From TrEMBL:
NCBIfam families: glgD. This is Glucose-1-phosphate adenylyltransferase subunit GlgD. GO terms for molecular function: glucose-1-phosphate adenylyltransferase activity. Belongs to the bacterial/plant glucose-1-phosphate adenylyltransferase family. GO terms for biological process: glycogen biosynthetic process.
Length: 367
């Protein structure tokens, strides 16, 4: 869609996933056996045929850059436009901006050179399959200054607590933006705005010493703007803690949830060519998601195994997430555990966490 350009803003996404974000930003955390969290919003933008997409990063982005590359899996490796990974300019002595406004000020060239007339701004913590074309058409139909994308949550969970909520009038426009935890209209940190108006607000906020675009330009001034609300009704998960990551990951073992997230429009990711998973005669696998390249000789139940995991004979894995290239020794027992990449668990070891508080082992650990 030539009228719309994408911005994935990771500046406000703190390292809330503890051990999983020791060596990477939250957007680069692996998910569902072969993906990263950023793949979902990036694929939604690519499926809307956006030609220019910027990723604003500040810290721990080496892993993210390695994953994204030139953007080929999302058809964004272009001679003109495409995918841009943009950190702040640390060498600009005249820069007085703060927070995510610093990204916007330092990267004005991205907005000015892009031919699109509208901005779609998003984070990476809300996993969904929003049709951005449909949301954009809704924005134009309403004639709003900005359109916020939200979902109505039937069962509020702890991960929803930090999320902003929208009060929506009978006319479909936002009347208030607040933090009331018992309110079901969860703002998904996605908005659409005309680029010219967006840049005017950026300059105004910087001139007044503000730090965060959404808070200072939209939330504080919602009475002075015409703000529409677009309701998304599909699969939705918020990943902002280890507990929410663990819970929402294992819920994908339910075929209904898995189908809701991956059906219809594709979710693309970095391609890795590996052999199919090998199941030894001693293997037993039940209700699990197993990526390619694994060698299974033990028991795996209600778990997710990423690429290249080796489970040796006699090992037992239950209700756990085992990331890429981990090795589980003979007769080891793992239950309610998250192992990050390249963890080597010796034979006969036992790791047991709690269903509501999984035991997490950081990347490249040897126990």
């Amino acid at each position: 869609m030539s009228e719309l350009m994408g911005v994935i803003n990771l500046d406000h996404e703190l390292d809330l996933l503890n051990e999983l974000t020791y060596f990477r930003c939250g957007a680069a955390v692996p998910f569902a056996g072969r993906y990263r969290l950023i793949d979902f919003v990036l694929s939604n933008m690519a499926n809307a045929e956006m030609k220019d997409i910027a990723v604003f990063v500040r810290r721990k982005y080496r892993s993210l850059m390695d994953h994204l590359g030139e953007g080929r899996p999302w058809d964004l490796d272009r001679k003109r436009g495409g995918l841009f990974v943009l950190p702040p300019d640390w060498n600009d002595s005249s820069d007085t901006s703060h927070g995510d406004l610093q990204h916007m000020r330092n990267n004005l060239d991205f907005f000015k050179r892009g031919k699109a007339k509208y901005i779609l701004h998003s984070g990476s913590q809300h996993l969904c399959k929003v049709d951005f074309c449909e949301a954009f058409n809704y924005h134009k139909e309403t004639g709003a200054d900005v359109t916020l994308i939200y979902t109505k949550v039937d069962q509020l969970e702890p991960e929803h607590d930090p999320c902003l909520r929208l009060e929506i009038g009978e006319d479909g426009f936002v009347s208030n933006i607040h933090h009331e935890k018992d309110h079901p209209n969860v703002y998904m940190e996605m908005f659409i705005m005309e680029k010219k108006f967006f840049l005017e607000q950026v300059r105004h906020c910087i001139a007044h010493g503000d730090s965060y675009f959404f808070r200072d330009a939209i939330q504080k001034n919602h009475h002075n703007m015409k703000i529409a609300a677009y309701e998304y009704k599909g699969y939705h998960a918020v990943i902002n803690s280890v507990e929410s990551y663990y819970k929402n990951s294992l819920e994908l073992l339910c075929p209904k949830n898995y189908t809701s997230l991956f059906k219809e429009r594709p979710v693309n990711t970095k391609i890795k060519y590996e052999a199919p998973t090998k199941y030894l005669d001693s293997a037993s696998v039940n209700n699990s998601l197993v990526a390619n390249g694994c060698v299974i000789g033990g028991s795996v139940e209600n778990s997710i195994l990423f690429r290249g995991v080796k489970v040796q004979k006699g090992a037992k894995i239950t209700n756990s997430i085992i990331m890429q290239k981990c090795v589980i020794g003979e007769n080891a027992v793992i239950e309610n555990v998250i192992l990050d990449k390249d963890v080597n668990l010796p034979p006969d070891r036992m790791l047991v966490g709690d269903v509501k508080r999984p035991f997490v082992i950081a990347k490249s650990s040897t126990l």
